[in-house]
């Protein structure tokens, strides 16, 4: 009995020491499973700066591990050493990939420690500048008049733009679906849209706001239940729900994850730093300028974060099953 108590005490002291010394002189890599310069990468770089302030002497760096709809980066983190020096920043694709890919190198709800949600990012339905339509209603009429002739771009299977486009088309109820054109990232998809090589795309406000403001693309609607009435650029556009798409309310959320088995003392340190970062006025301002809303509810707690992702997995699987679009 005395030996057991001694071992338990030693374990507690060891865990406490880990929390006090973590992260030490070693940087914490925030793995982004998408290319540099994209909307999720931008969230990660802003968060790295905000979290660095919360842990004295720490260094948070962003590492891009793009490919296969975010599954390469997610797999990398799932298999990383559970020491708190490798974490994953992922968006709604974390909940979508189990429905989109028949084979994954990880189990979403089993192979990660959930650290908390970061923000909610609305989506914007945008079109190439050459489109004759100027309002969402005109755009719907244009789609029907050109059934089967238009195409929709996305940044790859499992990307935010892919999920948004999939859900929008499933609600559109047009006779002929648009041809889907996948790209290797958000940047090439946006370039093709601006150049007129593709007709439409649905993407995060963090990526579309500057393009809309600069007149390089046409905006038709936002994906939130209500219009973004306080946003300086997007307040002029209706919501898809307002335009008749019943219960259409989609935001692309971002969350933070560590490999399964990361010590509780370390995950608590990371969660504490995350919660403080979410209250950082500069981080909040950067998010709001792009139409994103920093999480202020209980989803910043690990257990609620995991519960939310589990519910999103069920919702997205239903939409994917209806569309019948998978990858091996």
UniProtKB/TrEMBL annotation:
Organism encoding this protein: Limnohabitans planktonicus II-D5
Signal peptide (residue range): 1-19
Alphabetical list of Pfam families matching this protein: TctC
Name the record gives this protein: ABC transporter substrate-binding protein
Keywords, in A-Z order: Signal
InterPro entries assigned to the protein according to its UniProt record, in alphabetical order: BUG, Bug_dom1
Gene3D superfamilies hit by this protein: Bordetella uptake gene, domain 1 (3.40.190.150), Periplasmic binding protein-like II (3.40.190.10)
Family per record: Belongs to the UPF0065 (bug) family.
């Amino acid at each position: 009995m005395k030996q057991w108590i001694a071992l338990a005490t030693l374990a507690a002291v060891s865990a406490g020491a880990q929390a006090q010394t973590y992260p030490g002189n070693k940087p914490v890599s925030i793995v982004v499973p998408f290319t540099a310069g994209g909307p999720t990468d931008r969230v990660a770089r802003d968060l790295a700066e905000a979290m660095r302030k919360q842990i004295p002497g720490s260094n948070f760096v962003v590492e891009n591990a793009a490919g296969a709809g975010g599954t390469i980066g997610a797999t990398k983190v799932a298999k990383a050493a559970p020491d708190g020096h490798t974490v994953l920043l992922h968006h709604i694709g974390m909940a979508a990939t189990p429905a989109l890919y028949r084979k994954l190198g990880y189990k979403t709800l089993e192979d990660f420690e959930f650290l908390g949600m970061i923000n909610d990012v609305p989506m914007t339905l945008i079109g190439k500048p050459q489109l004759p339509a100027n309002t969402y209603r005109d755009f719907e009429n244009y789609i029907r008049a050109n059934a089967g002739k238009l195409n929709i771009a996305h940044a790859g299977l499992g990307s935010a733009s892919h999920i948004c486009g999939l859900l929008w088309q499933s609600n559109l109820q047009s006779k002929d679906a648009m041809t889907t054109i996948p790209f290797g990232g958000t940047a090439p998809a946006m370039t093709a849209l601006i150049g007129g090589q593709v007709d439409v795309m649905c993407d995060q406000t963090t990526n579309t706001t500057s393009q809309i403001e600069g007149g390089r693309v046409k905006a038709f609607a936002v994906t939130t239940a209500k219009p973004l009435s306080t946003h300086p650029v997007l307040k002029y556009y209706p919501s898809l729900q307002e335009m008749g798409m019943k219960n259409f309310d989609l935001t692309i959320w971002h969350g933070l994850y560590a490999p399964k088995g990361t010590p509780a003392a370390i995950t608590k340190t990371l969660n504490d730093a995350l919660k403080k970062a979410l209250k950082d006025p500069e981080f909040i301002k950067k998010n709001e300028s792009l139409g994103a809303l920093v999480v202020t509810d209980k989803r910043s707690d690990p257990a609620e974060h995991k519960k939310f992702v589990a519910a999103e997995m069920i919702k997205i699987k239903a939409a994917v099953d209806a569309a019948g679009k998978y990858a091996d």
